[in-house]
Each structure stands twice: as C-alpha cells, then as structure tokens.
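User: I'm putting together a teaching handout on how sequence relates to shape, and I'd like one worked example. Could you take Demethylmenaquinone methyltransferase from Desulforudis audaxviator, show the sequence you're using, and then write out its predicted structure as tokens right after it?

Assistant: Happy to. First the sequence, then the structure tokens directly below it.
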Amino acid sequence: MTGLTQEPGDSPEAKAEAVRAMFASIAHRYDLLNSVLSLNQDRYWRSCAAAACGLKPGDRALDVACGTGLLALELARLVGREGRVVGLDFCPEMLARARENLERTPLGEVVELAAGEATDLPFPDHSFDAAAIGFALRTVPDLEQTIAEMVRVVRPGGRVVSLELAKPELPVLKQAYSLYLHRVVPLIGRLGVGFSGPYDFLSASLEHFPHQAQIRDLFVRLGLVDAQYSKLTGGIVAVQAGTKPRPS
C-alpha cells in the first residue's frame, strides 16, 4: 500500500516537502476555510473522531499531523486536566497556529505540541491510550507506514482512529460532491488565500486516495481488531477505528 496517495513518479521526500510548503502557505486561513468549505460540519466530524478513540479522564492521546490543534483539543476535552494529549506536526507554521488556538482555552494546557514526522513517530512503543489523525492520511508520504507507527505507539487495548474525506456512494450525492470538490472548493480556496494550488490539491488528493473500505482492510492487515468505519454527512467523511489487540 506504500505510496497510495502519491502521484506517479513522486518520491516520498518530494511529496513531504511539497505538502509542508503547501500547509505553510495556508496555515493563517486553514481553520476559517475548513469551516467554510465543510459548511461548519468540521467540528462535528472532529467530535465523532474523538469519541471513537474511547478515551476516559486521565488517559494519554496522540494527535498525529495535528495541524492547528483542533482535534487535539477535542481529545483534551475527553481526557480532562488529569490526562495528556500530544499534538505532533511537521509544519512549523501549522504548529504556530496550534499554539495560538491552545492559548485561547484553559484546556490548552492539557496539550503538548511536538515537531515530528507521521512516518517516524518519536515516541516509545505503547505510549498512548489512543492515536488519532485528522484529514492527513491523504497527505502523508507513506500511508501504510503512518498507520503502522500509530499502531506501534498505542498500548494493547488502545485505539487507532482516522478522520478523513471519503468517497460517497449514492449516485446523486457522488456527482454533486465531485462538482463541489473540483469547482467550488478551488474557487473558495483561491479567494481565501489569494492564490490557486493548495485547494486544487484537495480534490486531486482524494482521487488518488483509497476507498474507505480499503483503509479499513489496511487497519486489519496491520494488526488491528474490530476495525470498522462510520460514514458521516452522507458519506463524504469517514471515521476509521480499530483496536490494538491485547496479548493472548
């Protein structure tokens, strides 16, 4: 499954640098445009993903490719002040926006930010009760390695969760969604950041991304049990979740 999100001929290193530069260029408008483009559904999607992590007060959670930290804050609401959330990202500009978001809420002190790569998480095995990733599997240089790393750092019995754009299957919705992604999203993105490119990438990245059922199957192949996905908002978004098995 390595390279499923890459364009033919792209090296992982080239893709990583291109993605880093892209997110750096849109970090200042990322949250606003997410809300606009999702018709304000993005917070609901994050809350569903956080709930799938099965966290309780006092737990430790990891938000991989945390971006501006909003999913990390949803996780912080679940683990509470006695818990801990680590948000990791490889883009300094996105981490800077995350720090600003964390400073606006008392729960921000629950979240620790770290720089690092999704494909090589700088944490020991079994460090967290759950690991989540939101809207970033499409952008990582190695999809399988990223999920394998999330499995590694979660304790036995812990959860691995992904929130990602999906591929709706209802014919009318599928056609309308395709039109929205290819025409409306790039236009709004261009108006929001002042240039084209980053939001053209959104539709292109989804075209090359596997169907949600394939991601579930990858969860299973990497050792997770009870792997399943839930479709949100008519199937335009999916929450994938699986449990790391306990030793028999």
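A couple of points you could highlight for students: The first strand starts at residue 60 and ends at 64. Confidence is low (pLDDT under 50) at residues 1-9.
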